[in-house]
Amino acid sequence: MGIKGLTALLAEHAPKAFHEHEIKTLFGRKVAIDASMSIYQFLIAVRQKDGELLTNDAGETTSHLMGFFYRTIRMVENGIKPAYVFDGKPPELKSGVLSKRFEKREEAKEEGEEAKETGTTEDMDRFSRRTVKVTREHNEECRKLLGLMGIPFVVAPSEAEAQCAELARGGKVYAAGSEDMDTLTFGAPILLRHLTFSEARKTPISAINLEKALEGLEMDMSQFIDLCILLGCDYLEPIKGIGPKTALKLIREHGTLAEVLKHLREKVAEKEEAADEGKKRKGGVQIPEDWPCEAAKELFKKPDVTPANELELEWKSPDIDGLVDFLVREKGFNEERVRKGAEKLTKFLNAKQQGRLDGFFTATAKPKTSPAKKDKAEEKGKGKGTKRKADDKKDAGGSKKTKKK
Amino acid sequence: MLEAKLSEAAILKRLLDAVKELVSDANFECNEEAITLQAMDNSHVALVAVKLEASGFKRYRCDRAIPLGVNLGSLTKVLKCAKDDDILTLKATDDADILSLTYEAKSTYTDRIAEYEMKLMDIDADTLGIPDTEYDASVTLPSAEFSRIVRDLSLLGESVRIEVSKEGIRFVSDGEAANGNILLRQSAEAAPKKGSSGVRIEMNQAVTLTFSLKYLVNFSKSSTLSKKVQLMMSNDVPLLVSYEFNQGHIRYYLAPKIGDD
């Protein structure tokens, strides 16, 4: 899923794009969350001690509902207003990847059967997690639950990440919440990761700023999309023999993907000639025969989404009786806990929100003293090499380092 | 280089107590005229701005503007070693790697000179431009009274509604179990003078705003610096809480709580 190696690449070349937040500093923000991925996450992560999925008395899975209910409440408690986006039809290009995933799942299933006979419980656990599949029922139940909770959701015409990005771009929400890096490729200005993680893990929320990422990579959006395709996305087979480093180098050297491909094809041809002569094995770069990169690029640039201004996100009071009916009677949840959760939802959705100063005061370029300081730092850097510049590898806004003397 | 001599260490100690709850690291910007500090809390809800005028120091010299990046926790520790009435001298060289603090005891019994040095940091923070705002309402009240009000109300609820009207200034808090409100009327004097200790209200129009008490309680720690506090408000803009003292001022800005849009 997502873009191969993009996180690492950004961490190396555009560290300023990353920013870690505690969940409580995100209050008042509206966030569009990729629901389909969240369901996966919950089915995989929300488990009993023995690694089995949570079920009700009738044996129906409830892991996903558990996840949606409590983690949504956690966000709401922290003042975040979540909206969920569900996947629609996958784009045709994705069928290749999807069938591969299906194969893998089948494989895991078989291995799982085998493990059941021979392996340890640990093995079994691992395989059962790999065989997770989100069904239509899961999706429908989650939508029903969100409706009862008063949380808005959108069913995307196609990819959920793309719709999240559209909502963020259109200003309907502050950021897109997903683990998938291709949300950035779809043009989400800010991507929040780890938003739906369990509280117990205490993972800080990592925010990735697209603009800063582009700045760090020294690219425009079109080149960034090219880079993502070259790195390996959901729609195309990756080119064998090109890793993140080579990909970045190639795009930087040649500017566009088309040029890169031309260059690669030439090189491959050269190599083939050489191989014929020297009877060496053909190695290195292999471009798949059928590689519709233009189509993939088009998909990233103009994904099939509902325009943000046609969507209204509305947070309503939860239907407490409805929730009890659904979660307690049908799905066997503890009534007291459900009622408590619903109470929290009511309380926080109606509470007054703390405002921020950002809207009132704007950052001035840099204080007057700064240029002097910068000169000095440079002088020093050359002279004695003692002090590194603040801007060198810092996140904006308050990171620091003790000076060495 | 910077060399600044304060006749009493207490000022800096109190300033730090008033700032360190809000931010952990900040730049003291030093130039010819003053030492200033501006910092915003992590969640960008409150901003603190401090100014120490050069004229407020016993001796002050700063040849070129230098930022001193300070970890406020560390500075607090170093300042703990000073007595309130010690004469305090701050020194830093132009490369601003180290801040040195000298405390000279005033006591006649011992001739004590203590020297401390602390490491400085590079802090990369944006400075915010604060527009000059004409506020609709300005209320001056004794700082101890303000501290008591926010402390009392913070026991009841999370936020306080401040209403300024012809009647006076009213602080209202609705908690889950209890609620309360405190009204301060304009002091009886016909035209209260600036120096008087009562409550003085100037307003163009009635203002009602809601704020988080947690932050106000933090701000009220500055009451050790000044006997009076000024609250400046306009609808839908941040509150300005200002404490003026001999050497300068400390000002806090707090974003209001906003209703559902």
Automatic annotation (TrEMBL), chain A:
- Name its co-factor(s): Mg(2+)
Any one GO molecular-function label of the UniProt entry: magnesium ion binding
Q: Which domain of life is it from?
A: Eukaryota
Where in or outside the cell?
Answer: Mitochondrion; Nucleus, Nucleolus; Nucleus, Nucleoplasm
One GO term under biological process is:
base-excision repair
Ranges of Basic and acidic residues composition bias in the record: 115-124, 372-398
Give the transmembrane region(s): none
Q: Name one Pfam family in it.
A: XPG_I
User: So which residues are the signal peptide here?
Assistant: none
**Chief location of this protein?**
mitochondrion
Q: Which GO terms describe its cellular component?
A: mitochondrion; nucleolus; nucleoplasm
Listed SUPFAM superfamilies: 5' to 3' exonuclease, C-terminal subdomain (SSF47807), PIN domain-like (SSF88723)
Q: Which family does it belong to?
A: Belongs to the XPG/RAD2 endonuclease family. FEN1 subfamily.
Q: Which PANTHER family match?
A: FLAP ENDONUCLEASE 1 (PTHR11081:SF9), FLAP ENDONUCLEASE FAMILY MEMBER (PTHR11081)
Q: What is this protein called?
A: Flap endonuclease 1
Identify the species of origin: Polyporus arcularius HHB13444
Automatic annotation (TrEMBL), chain B:
Question: What biological-process GO terms show up in the record?
Answer: error-free translesion synthesis; lagging strand elongation; leading strand elongation; mismatch repair; regulation of DNA replication
UniProt domain Proliferating cell nuclear antigen PCNA C-terminal: residue ranges:
129-257
- Kindly state one GO CC term assigned in the UniProt record: PCNA complex
Q: Where in the cell is it found?
A: Nucleus
UniProt superkingdom = Eukaryota
List the SUPFAM superfamilies hit by this protein, alphabetically.
Answer: DNA clamp (SSF55979)
Q: Which UniProt keywords apply?
A: DNA replication, DNA-binding, Nucleus
Gene3D superfamilies membership:
DNA Polymerase III, subunit A, domain 2
| Domain Proliferating cell nuclear antigen PCNA N-terminal as annotated: residue spans | 1-126
State what this protein does: This protein is an auxiliary protein of DNA polymerase delta and is involved in the control of eukaryotic DNA replication by increasing the polymerase's processibility during elongation of the leading strand. Involved in DNA repair.
Under the heading NCBIfam families, the entry gives: pcna
Q: In which family does this protein belong, per the annotation?
A: Belongs to the PCNA family.
What is the protein name given in its UniProt record? DNA sliding clamp PCNA
**Whose protein is this, by species?**
Polyporus arcularius HHB13444
